[in-house]
């Protein structure tokens, strides 16, 4: 299974409409990949909170969804299109990830549950998602999470319980916390015994330098590839069967106790 991460430079001088055209062309160039992944909020920038309302769009028929659906269809690839600022029919904003099949159909949408900002920015402007979301790819079950979600391992436990074998995490992670990014991505892979595909943005927007360093980590915690700080394309071959063999060889997940009902034991 060939996975490609597109680490996009979010330049504030580039209008979202221009970026959509450029990114769509980059997606089309990935024909032959089994899964292509984009970063969090790449149309506007994860820290550009002052633009969230103006750039918000519906999931169905929004400009980003339309452009990415067409690009996925033209390339014939599964596309995790990163996330957009979604405005629902009631006017609420969400940080919503979109997954398209090679036919251009929307196969999954995940509203980010853990919003960053400590009562400012995203945390103040966006509503939290309420559902854990997995998507069945022909090669493996994809578990969806976004950026700040990395700091909440209980979400990843739920994704694993729902069958996730590949955890896909688009992000707009700040450079000043790069060390946390690298540790958390590896930790989520090791504890979940799953692949983690973590795709970040490059450049600087809203005055916040981005970490880049998109990564693919295997179920043993081995970093298979890691980007630098600029815009780039990272491609790696995955072996989905490694998830099952890792869990069988080192069956740590079966020893979980907390959060699970304890056996009642024999009747007295």
Automatic annotation (TrEMBL):
Assigned keywords, A-Z: Hydrolase
Keyword check for Hydrolase: yes
Membrane-crossing residue ranges in chain numbering: none
Entry-linked CDD domains: nitrilase_5
Protein family according to the UniProt entry: Belongs to the carbon-nitrogen hydrolase superfamily. NIT1/NIT2 family.
The CN hydrolase domain, residue ranges: 1-240
The organism's place on the tree of life at top rank: Bacteria
Species, as recorded: Actinacidiphila yanglinensis
Protein name (database record): Predicted amidohydrolase
GO MF term list: hydrolase activity
InterPro entries in UniProt: C-N_Hydrolase, C-N_Hydrolase_sf, UPF0012_CS
């Amino acid at each position: 299974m060939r996975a490609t991460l597109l680490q996009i430079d979010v330049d504030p001088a580039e209008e979202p409409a221009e970026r959509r055209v450029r990114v769509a062309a980059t997606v089309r160039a990935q024909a032959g990949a089994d899964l292509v992944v984009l970063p969090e909020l790449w149309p506007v920038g994860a820290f550009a909170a002052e633009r969230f309302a103006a750039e918000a769009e519906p999931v169905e028929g929004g400009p980003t969804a339309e452009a990415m659906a067409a690009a996925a269809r033209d390339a014939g690839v599964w596309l995790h299109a990163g996330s957009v600022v979604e405005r629902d029919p009631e006017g609420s904003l969400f940080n919503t990830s979109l997954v398209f099949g090679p036919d251009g159909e929307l196969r999954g949408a995940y509203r980010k549950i853990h919003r960053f900002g400590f009562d400012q920015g995203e945390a103040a402007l966006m509503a939290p998602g309420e559902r854990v979301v997995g998507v069945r790819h022909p090669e493996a079950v994809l578990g969806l999470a976004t950026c700040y979600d990395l700091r909440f391992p209980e979400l990843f436990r739920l994704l694993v319980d729902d069958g996730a074998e590949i955890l896909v995490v688009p992000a707009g992670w700040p450079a000043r916390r790069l060390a946390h990014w690298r540790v958390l991505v590896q930790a989520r892979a090791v504890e979940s015994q799953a692949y983690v595909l973590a795709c970040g943005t490059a450049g600087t927007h809203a005055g916040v330098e981005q970490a880049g360093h998109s990564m693919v980590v295997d179920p043993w915690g081995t970093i298979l590839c890691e980007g630098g700080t600029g815009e780039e394309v990272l491609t790696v071959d995955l072996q989905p069967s490694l998830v099952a063999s890792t869990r069988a060889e080192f069956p740590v997940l079966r020893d979980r106790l907390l959060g699970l009902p304890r056996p009642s034991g024999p009747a007295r």
